[in-house]
Amino acid sequence: MASIEKRGNSYRIKVSGGYKVDGTQVVHRMTWTPEPDMTPKQIEKELQRQAVLFEEECSSGLAVSSMKFETLSEEWFEQYANLNLKSTTLTRQRQLTKRTYKAIGHIRIDKLTARNIQRFINSLAQEGVNEHTGKALSHKTMVHYLSFISTVLDYAIKMDMLKDNPCRRVTIPKGSKKKRHILTMEETQYFFKLLDDYAPLKWKAFFTLIIYSGMRRGEMLGLEWHDIDLKTGMIHIERTSNYTKARGIYTDTPKTENSVRFIKVPMNVVAVMEEYREWQAKESQRLGSKWVETDRLFTKWNGSPMNLQSPYGWLKEFCEEHNFPFYGIHQFRHLHTSLLIGAGIDPTTVSGVLGHAQVSTTLNLYSHMFRENQVKACDAVANALNFDKPEPTPPSAPAPISTDNNCNESDEKRAKIICIKTGYGA
To answer: How far lies 102's CA from each of 70, 83, 396, 411, 414, in Å?
Structure first.
């Protein structure tokens, strides 16, 4: 028996398809939207008809091939995404559904072709698509859309609903790539001076630590004092602070398994952290019962976890006030990475420091830096050998020792030296 659930202006029809070997129930779903001019009585009659037809399709095995992409996607969210994805990732995936459903949500999955998907992805590269900037979507965003569609179709393949994923034949337009800005050494040195002269101690500690550690913003805000060994400078990264509209600020595990890691910072950074800890302890005493004890390093005024947007907002105002270039928070992670690569650190070690899931991620994100470092390495060899210098002259051979009886004094001295070196004496 089909069940019907009203969802806004549409209706979701569910039909049970029995149970799998492992006891999991198989549920088929479809969404039906009535025409705008239909009366309530007409809607009720057609809805019942659609439910009967869908139930017949499910019993005959036709429902799988006739399932529309939106219906399949909602099943993927219910059966997989809601159970396995982190809240932040799930929220981002949900944000992709609006445009995707509008473009291909109505197409049956057995009729969905690479051409349909290619047309949708190409439309994202048109001027005006981005509602905030009035420009095309970035190349990275288009990658996210295609990845979402591909993931849903891969789920269908695993469930024996499809045999092929057309996303593999789709090409992403070049689009506009966000330029990655990295501070120069002169800018970095000046930024530290600004922190010393004008920044409150809390923000001086935050930005000093993020530059020297290369941590993600969520990792920084998830740090607790027991994660830091102030004697050695070792830091254990094992949690993040995240935010979604539904949950507010919450604590989660790091982005990947490799993101749980140890890093070490120099003792000059430890000195700043010790000074900051003393200041925070005095603040908690001053506020008394108003202070919320969380053990977090970076907090709101009362000790509760800091909002994720606070470092961004403070830095933007600070840079504008002191006429310093503002490139966002993630620029400091790029700066840290460029310093590692410039120092000749190998990709595997750099990947471990950054907490990437795979070395290939590091190589893809920072391929240009590694290429530049390879060029420097070649230049270093060339400079060492310096083939352009004048051709060296061969060392002059020692003058022959005279064998006649009329040898001069210098000949006698040279003969004595040779005797000493060879061990043969006169």
So the answer is: 9, 25, 86, 102, 98
